[in-house]
Amino acid sequence: MSATDKKAESISEYIAGFPQETQRVLEEIRATIKNVVPEAEESISYGMPTFNLHGHYLVYFAAYKKHIGFYPVPVENDFFKQELSSYKTGKGSVQFPLAKPMPLDLIVKIVQFRVKVNLEKRKKQK
Fold first, then answer.
1. Which residue numbers delimit the YdhG-like domain (predicted)?
2. Which residue has the higher pLDDT, 1 or 117?
3. For the domain that residue 107 is a member of, what is the CATH number?
4. Pairing of strands 88-90, 67-71
5. CB 38, CB 27: distance < 8 Å
6. Residue 108 predicted with pLDDT over 60
7. For position 52, what pLDDT does the model report?
8. Which residues pair with 63 in a beta bridge?
């Protein structure tokens, strides 16, 4: 979707705004996240597909012309530094090129890590 397009109100609507091949990749990512955390709630936040758990966001993702942005990513974590070394990263983000297969196993690991972080936040709030 471009900035001039109507803002999506659901992940399905967001995905529908992209070319067929990008839609396939976005649906693959969506299904991967749902498989890891079936109880996560879907929403749109900051104009991006978002998954929330226990009132806190888990991950966001967004499609661009040549990549999928995935947020937040624990780039400072030593375990993930090695796994993310072949991708362009920023503070808490990674870009997965659309021209390459999506690293779904890595996405699973990131989501699992984010679930642990989310649960720790929940414990501290109680």
1. 23-115
2. 117
3. 3.90.1150.200
4. unpaired
5. no
6. yes
7. 94
8. 68
Residue 125 has pLDDT above 80, yes or no: no
Q: What pairs with residue 52 in β-bridges?
A: 41, 57
Cβ-proximal residues to 94 (8 Å cutoff; 6+ apart), any chain: 69, 70, 73, 75, 84, 87, 88
**How many beta carbons lie within 10 A of that of residue 4, not counting itself?**
5
Number of residues in the chain: 126
User: Directed axis angle between helix 20-36 and helix 104-125, to 10°?
Assistant: 50
Write out the residue range of the structural domain in which residue 105 sits: 11-117
- Mapping DSSP to helix (H, G, I), strand (E, B) and coil, where does residue 119 land? helix
Q: What backbone phi and psi angles, to 5 degrees, belong to 85?
A: -60, -25
Number of domains comprising the chain: 1
